[in-house]
Amino acid sequence: MSNPLLVFNDKGIYCEQARVYLDPWQPVDHAIISHGHADHSRWGHKKYITHHSNVPIIKHRLGEIVVTGKEWNETFTINGVKFSLHPAGHIIGSSQIRVEYKGEVWVFTGDYKMEDDGVAVPYESVKCHSFITECTFGLPAFKWTPQDQVMTDVNNWWQQNREDGRTSILFGYSLGKAQRLLKYLDPSIGKIYTHGAIENMTEVLRPQLSMPETIRITRDTKKEELKGSMVLAPPSAHGTPWIRKMVPYVTASASGWMTFRGARRRRAIDKGFVLSDHCDWQGLLQAIEGTGCEKVICTHGYTDIFSRFLREKGYDARTEETQYEGEIGELEAKSEIEKDPEPVDKITSL
Fold it and tell me: From start to end residue, where is composition biased (Basic and acidic residues) (predicted)?
């Protein structure tokens, strides 16, 4: 094919033959959306296509939109181009987007991870000629501990804090990370409270996922009720009056960035749990090898380092600029905290 099947322009990743964009960052007529995070699903498109389990998520976040839900591996054709969605394992409803035209196959991953977390449908390897991959954690230093061990550490931390008479505040993005944490928290330790932004999203996802009972923090929540309990909050709640009224408390963050102690210090976090919804270094390499691809396009993350390594391994690898952020930014947390209808500084002190 003389022209690439997918190209990057100022609006997003474009399939000219189908006149469709993948995860566009500017308003377009037709958009296929990989998942519900704010940097991949934006408001303003005329028509959306996504996996059906992502439909309630983006409707909650974007309001009344024209959206069509698809099944896994369901082929749909637009202007002769075949599309299908395949599990990405990132969060609930996250998809890789397969694009085929005249025998050429491209796969756009969106965001993805290899570990089966028991929440998202596990990642599925899809054969292709060209593979568009994120590389948020595209450095050899990133190597994830198995989830079971991480969650054991989280629950042990909570238990110790409870014995010390302190509230445990655990930060995680309101869509995806918070529900993953919640599913594996041990409710026998104590009550689990949630920031309003996390509770709003958890209510949307409860029909799709079994999770322990939670209590929304409101203006009527008393400080003494929280002592010894677990509080799930978005990262941008840290340092606000909402947090300060929970004294005595201990904070922790669940993120791949907690690999580096410096990241924890910069964010003034007491404890870091290395838990990411993205691939680590080996996961990225395993995913690429599994596709059998020849060409790799690296987006958002350590793109230059990772693409250079791939070229040394014999791949035709290059980088492209996008407006996706992965876990690098806090746009998701910021946008969700602004949706909390409860004031953030109204916890009643006794």
Answer: 331-350
